[in-house]
Each structure stands twice: as C-alpha cells, then as structure tokens.
Amino acid sequence: KFGKNCNTETKWKLGISAFPSLSADDLSELVPNKEELNVVKIYAHKGEAVTLYVVHKNPLFFEVEKRLYPTVYVLWRCPALLPTFTTWPPVLQKLIGGADLMLPGVVVPPCGLPDVKQGDCCAVTLVHNRAPVAVGQASVSSAEMQSLGMKGRGVCVVHTYMDSLWAFGDKSCPPCVPDENDEHRSYKEECEVSEEEEGAKVEVEQSLEEQHTASESITKQDYGGIEDLSLAEKEEEKSEEGDEKEEENQEEQETPQALMDALLLQCFMHALKTRVKKSELPLLTSTFLRNHMFSCCPSGKQIDIKKSSYKKLSKFLQAMQQQHHLVRVKELTKGVESIVEVDWKHPQLRSFVAPEETDVEAASVCDEVEGEISYHPPEITTIYSGSCSPSYICCLHRKGATMNPTEVRSLVTDYVKKNDLVVEHNKNFVTVNPVLCDCLLEKSEYQEVETLKWDDLFSRTLGRMQVCHQVVFPGKAPITKKGQIEPIDISVASRGSNKKVTLIKNLELYGLDPAAVASALQHKVQASSVLHPVPGSKDKVLVQIQGNQVHQVGTLLLDHYRIPNKYIQGLVKAPKSMKKK
What residue stretches are annotated with the SUI1 domain (predicted)? Predict the structure, then answer.
C-alpha cells in the first residue's frame, strides 16, 4: 500500500535521528526535497508488518518492530553509515540462503573489530570490497565476541543482497569500493611472500649444488650408471610435483560452482549453435533446457542448475540476455517465459566450437546399453503350499510340499473319481461328501449345498490353500516365498511447496539393482536421484528422482528391462500431456 508524499519532518526522522553519522547533505542527496518519498507496507513470510520508505522505486529504509534499518541501496552510497564486519565471499551464499553471520567466518582486521553493543545495527562486507551485502543486529558486543574466542553467532541478519527486499528495487549489483588499507596490506604481503620465495629458491639452489658435487665424487668411483638413474628419478619427481601443484591450483581456482557455471554456458552455446532453429521460436525455456541443453551435456557429466551460482534457469537466461546479449527472453503468458529471439551473428556464438564426443565416451555409452540388454527378467509363477491344504488333499499329497494349480486340479479330480462323487445324471456336478463338507463349505451351507460344480470345487479348494510365489532367475535356483509377489511400486510425493519427486521401490524383488536403475534414470531425464533405505526393511532401497518421472520410469522398466505390466504399479500417475487447442 502506497502512502502520500512524506514531509520534511519524516525525512529528518528517517535520517538524522536514526543514524547520527548520516549528515544532512547525505540525507538530501538520498531523499531530494522535490522528490516523492513513498511509504509502502508489506508483510514478511512469517506475518510481520514491514514499512518501506521508497524513492524512485528503490527502498531506502525499512522498519521492523519499530526499528529502522537502511537497505543495501543506501549503504552502497554511504558505506560508512554502519559499523561493518568483514567475511569471505563464499559466506555470501549462506547469508542469502537465510543464515546468520557466525563469528568463525568474520575476518578480523589489524585495527580490530568495530565497537558495537548487543543489538546495534551493523552491516556485513566482503574481503577487499567496502560495499555492504547484508544488514542485521549484533548478537553480542565486541568485547564479548573476543572473550568467546570468536565462536558463536555474530550478526543476526535481517536483509541481504539478492533477497526479496533487494528485488523490490532496481536489482542493481554491489559497486566495487576498495579499501586502501587492504591494498597496502596486500602489497606488503606480496613483497614478503616474494622475499620468502627468493630465499627458498636460494636454499634449493644451494642444496642442488651440494647434491651435484656429491654425485661428481661418486662418478669418480665408477658409479656413472647410478648417477644417471638418480638424476632421472629426480627429474621425474620434480615433474610429478609440478603437475600435482598445477592440479591443486586448478582445483582451488575452479570451485564446483564455477565448474557448473562453465558447463551451463557450454551446453547453452552448444544448443544455440547446433540444436535450436529459427522456426522453433518462440521456444519455452523449460523445453529449451529439457530437449536441447540436456542433450548437449557431455557424457559423464550432469547439468544441475541448483549447484551453479544462478540457482534458477530464469536467472541464468537473464544473465545470458543482459550480460552476453545472446538471447531475448520474454514472458508471453503469465508465469511462463520463452526465448523469442537469438542473435546467431553474435561473435561469441560464431566463434564457439561445439565439442565432439570422443571414442571413449561412445564406448562407455555402448557398455551401458549392453549392460541393460544383458538383464533378463525372472519367471514368476503362483504356487500353493500343502501346509494349509484341506484334509482330503493332504491324504493324496505330502503335507508341506508346493503345487502349481494344475497339480492341485489333478489331485482333486483323482479324489472325486476314487470316492465316486460324480453325479450320475449330470457329470458337471460333484456330490459333497462329509469330508468335502467340512473342508469347503461354510456352516450356513451345511444343510443347503449338496453338490458343487467342478469349477466351484477347484476354486474353493485353492482358496483354502496357502498362496506362494516362485521366482526363477536365469542360471539360479528357484526362490519360493509365501504370498503374492509385491509389484514394483511407483509413486509421486511432494517436497516443499511445489516440488515433486518420484519414488520407486521393490526393485530388488525382480533382480534389479536400485543404484543401476537410478543411474540410468538420471542420465535419461537429466535429474538428480537419491537412494534411501525403506523404513522397516533391512534389504530394500527406495529410489528417489526429482520431478514427476512416472512415464520415463515406466518406459525404462517395460521397454529396457522387459518387466511385465502386471508387476508394475502406479503407471496411471504419469502427468497427462497438454493437448494443443
């Protein structure tokens, strides 16, 4: 809700009274006299009422529980407005995710921590940049922080760069405000490091000269061959150490997040150059990711936007539009974005060379396909146990043995013929003798039922026996268990507000490795998968894959593993395809 233009008294209350370090000139620059200062009332996700003071659609201050805070937009223009705590850049992602600033992550400058009391408003900056990225309250005073050994909570964060309050404004990025003290200190550190490296080099050269003189004395004693071997081994060790140092440096420089960003950019460029056609535009961003970017992902790698710095596809495409100017994304319908234009003449896109799949990658794909084809589904048959058989069956068959339906039918026929129970005038019926009456009839039927049809006799007999199932894998002994075999259960569950996951269980009963099935689905649908133990079971594992993938799971089980449809449960939960009007 927007209010009217605020008067000069309100501006004075906002600036000078709440923040004494803010001068009248700074306040006039932030809120010019002729500009309109609007008041906006919003509600946080927990229901707290928050009052915003907005100029040019940028929130400058916000008030929570009668406490006034500046936003990052104000602090970028007045970095010295609040006392600041410095932390490392990787901590910023944790702060954006809702975490508070912990004291072990605080970088203590040579001049010491800022003088704050418990509850004071303070800001958080990153190393080598004075532009604040978060605002909050000090959990404890500076003296208590040092007495606690810099352990525990330092700042309770209430607002950060890239949160919803920042998104209310123009979404600008933090400026680069270098700290002169940091520059002088880094220069001194570099000089010290260079002097240490020169000293180390001198020591290494001296040791090498000593080793060389020692080797010359050995050569005088006719050990030339040993000298050659030792020198060769030293050179190999030096080269190995150099390679290891280079690999360690590369690993330190390229974090998993940076690697995922590079993979996203590579697949994005590859898809635009080789897959997307002009006739397909406008193209849904979700379709572009699923049908084009995923198919351009190299073998052995997997695209996971959540592991990148963008976190969402919309933010990645927004960066490709604003920073690289490769595409233009537009929201054609509410909540659904599409790629409406691609600059195929862009120098970056024209110079991009699509990577080719190597023979090793192709061979690995062939191995995976052969591994899937080598699986043969088991033969599953329903059998009956004689342990609970009617007494007349037990007389003809060994108690406890298993029988298939044909054997049970044959035993019943032999019993009827042996006791001459077939009705003479109608051979479709069997006379119920006292044994059959006790075994097959209910008490209410004793006086009413005198004959049974053959089919009724067989079905009643099978109904009184213990149902079992027998599983036979190729080249292995049969496995017999009581009851019907459980089908492969496919279900869809909700995680969070609007996230779906597909759950698969009972794969082990059919000789399928849950890890192999999860890996096959992961490469097929390009979604993350996890294995969980089934509660209450020691040997069963549950496969969880992101999204509603019921259709893909069914296709994999039916077509690749050739599991009969009657042993798969939950295929009806597949998402229905949208019909074009």
Answer: 488-561
Query: Can you tell me which residue has the tokens 């994304």?
Result: 329
Q: Beta strands of 99-186 (E only): which ranges? A: 101-102, 106-107, 121-126, 129-138, 153-160
If one compares 542 and 216, the residue with the highest pLDDT of the two is 542
Q: Say how far residue 41 (Cα) sits from the centre of its chain.
A: 36
Here the tokens at position 407 are 């054997």
Q: Say if CB 570 and CB 550 are below 8 A apart.
A: yes
Q: What is the Cα–Cα distance from 238 to 232, expressed in whole angstroms?
A: 10
Question: Once rounded to an integer, what is the mean pLDDT over residues 453-469?
Answer: 86
- Give the phi and the psi of residue 154 in degrees, each rounded to 5: -105, -50
The owner of tokens 């406890």 is: 400
Instruction: Report the distance separating Cα 371 and Cα 519, nearest Å.
Output: 12
Tokens representing residue 108 in the block: 């203590």
Tell me if 321 sits within 8 A of 312, measured CB to CB: no
| Confidence check: pLDDT of 385 > 70 | yes
Which one has a higher pLDDT value, 273 or 140?
Answer: 140
Give residue-wise pLDDT tens across range 111-133. Answer: 889 999 999 999 999 998 889 99
Q: Report the distance separating Cα 393 and Cα 90, nearest Å.
A: 75
Instruction: State the Cα–Cα distance between residues 125 and 107, nearest whole angstrom.
Output: 10
Query: Is the pLDDT confidence value at 244 over 80?
Result: no
How distant, in Å, are the alpha carbons of 248, 291, 309, 486 from that of 89? 20, 35, 12, 52
**DSSP of 13-45, one letter per residue?**
IIIIIT-TTS-HHHHHHHS-TTS--EEEEEE-T
Q: What average pLDDT does this structure show over 47-70?
A: 88
**C-alpha span between 257 and 265 (Å, rounded):** 12
| Residue 67 CB-half CA count within 13 A | 12
Helical packing angle, 359-373 and 514-525, nearest 10°: 130
Look at the block and give the residue holding tokens 């190597």: 358
Q: Report H helices in 424-479.
A: 434-440, 454-463
Q: Which of 52, 10, 16, 17 is nearest to 33 (CA)?
A: 10
Q: Please, which residues have CB within 8 angstroms of residue 453's CB and are 6 or more apart in sequence?
A: 428, 429, 430
- The dihedral sign for the CA sequence 32, 36, 41, 44: negative
| Nearest by Cα to 122 from 268, 266, 21, 263 | 21
Helix H or strand E encompassing 147: helix 142-147
Amino acid present at 347: P
What is the rounded radius of gyration, in angstroms, for the C-alpha atoms of the chain?
Answer: 38
Q: How far apart are CA 69 and CA 28, in angstroms?
A: 18
Contacts of 411 (CB under 8 A, 6+ apart): 393, 396, 397, 403
Element (H, E) at 199: helix 180-219
Distances (CA, A) of 338 to 145, 269, 524: 50, 17, 24
Q: Per the structure block, which two tokens stand in for 527? A: 């979604």
pLDDT band at 1 (very low <50, low <70, confident <90, very high): very low
